[in-house]
Amino acid sequence: AWRDESVHMRLAHALVKGITEHIEADTLEAYDNIGTALNVIEGPLMDGMNEVGDLFGSGKMFLPQVVKSARVMKKAVAVLLPYLEQEKSANNTSAGRILMATVKGDVHDIGKNIVSVVLQCNGFEIVDMGVMVPCENILKRAQEEKCDVIGLSGLITPSLDEMVHVASEMQRLDYNLPVMIGGATTSKTHTAVKIAPEYDNIVVHVNDASRAVNVATQIISKEYKIKFKTELDEEYAKKRAYFESRQQVRNLLTIEQARNNAPKIDWQNYQTYTPSFLGVREEHNYSLDKLQARIDWTPFFRAWELAGRYPAILEDEVVGAQASELFADAQTMLRKIISENWLEANAVYGFFRANSIADDIEIYANEHATELLGTSYQLRQQSATNKRTPNYCLSDFIAPKSTNINDYIGMFAVSCGSGVAEKVAEFEADHDDYSAILLKALADRLAEAYAEELHERVRQDLWGYQAEESLTNEDLIKEKYQGIRPAPGYPACPDHREKLTLWKILKPDARVDITLTESLAMNPAASVSGWYFSHPEARYFGTGKFSKDQMADYAVRRGEDVSDSERWLASNLGY
Q1: Hey, what CATH topology would domain 97-247 get?
Q2: Which CATH architecture is the domain 256-287+343-544 placed in?
Q3: Active-site hit among 69, 116, 153, 159
Q4: pLDDT averaged over consecutive 10-residue blocks of the chain (575 residues)?
Q5: Active site annotation includes 108
Q6: What are the percentages of helix, strand and coil residues in the chain, rounded to 5?
Q7: Per the residue annotation, which of 8, 26, 106, 535 is the catalytic one?
Q8: CATH, domain 2-87, list 2.60.40.10, 1.10.1240.10, 3.40.50.300, 3.10.20.80
Q9: Can you spell out the DSSP letters for 487-508?
């Protein structure tokens, strides 16, 4: 068996297979044989990691396995650290030093952490600054650590603006470092159109971990860097030209025309449903056991860059074996999360009298609607579709004030993130990125499952407008039920500031410890919030692009300068 091989072979095998059992003993044995820690790292350990890199690069190995290999590598290096200190040559052999940070106001870091691990596997040194990092801290640290590249990550739309800010600051302060951009809302187009023009050096969008190594190698290399930049500039110039040409042909209705084409809902013959209570309720430490059956696993595999739908992905010819192994690890950890109470599921939700006035929704403090709790400002689709398709706005699904009908709206915030940070810190102290990333991904899935489970209780019982509903989990994932739960910052309601209305009324920060960052990301990251609409015609949609006249109208309704509206809705502007 492999345990009978030479220590060099055993180390390589452990790295490729991700086996941690014997790593400390084997590493020390290699140190005794070879004599210097540096030569152990540069010899057997790098041989193993190079093989991992080759397998990953050629598509024979997948991300979860790479992260497991990295765990073995980190544990081996940790054993050698005291000897490295004595040899004082820990920094001789790096492929380059890369600073990684999730930008100010953003708390999401699964993608960033995965990319960091893959880069480390390929010999890069990573300076990881974590989440919510202000621009000046990033730039200062990059100088202090003499970094070769800065990597910026973000998940929510306001983070895109923050990345533009970092690039323009680097230009102003005369930095000369390439920048890598990544994260869920980032794109090649946004990078080319908005970020790259701010900075004369390389700004490159990296859409997944497998590309990161190749890009980092080229932008650090003296011989490839210039060619890379020339090709990138050409590609991004084409992206910008295409983007500009699209901007001109966009066919938008005026806001007046769009409102005239709102869906026609027959309110006079509609019976609204009165919720079982009005006001706010909270629940603490909800049963995680009840939530696990509700998990939608497809996005979990996507987080690990494994493409396919669950459960079919487990049988997939290419990724099936890896997906099955990852799924088994996830099930094992899920059992521990539940039996050892690693996480806490908490929620706050409420129902309120509400009526719409054009595109806005007034939310009242009592049944008689004598006191206003807040106004939710909504946005309307303006694309000039054919006349048969209406131009939707969320306010369409709430009875207009002029009808004198008593209607209602619900709102919620749930989180399964309480306890994540402490547990992740334990894993990271043990050089175990794999378990840290796995836990964050599972916490995200549990939070979504909680939002789904609570929505079902709302439909069947708490609001009760679908008391007779019976759906399978498959049906639930496909949203085959009446009513919707749109979230601020998503396509039907792209302005993240609508969370401020939810927070003002529900107070999730005080009640269940879900706070908002300055960019209005929810913290902890494994949190979901939104509205409840009960009308049978309520549906999800994307608002798409807005014209200047809707933005001007929206700014007046919100009582702000139009530049503020434009800043928060930058990626939705059609002009």
Answers
A1: Rossmann fold (3.40.50)
A2: Roll (3.10)
A3: 159
A4: 94 96 97 92 90 89 94 94 76 83 96 91 92 98 97 95 98 97 94 97 92 94 94 97 79 94 95 97 98 97 95 97 98 98 98 98 96 98 86 98 98 98 97 97 98 97 92 83 97 98 98 98 98 98 96 98 97 91
A5: yes
A6: 50, 15, 35
A7: 106
A8: 1.10.1240.10
A9: -TTBTTB--TTHHHHHHHHH-H
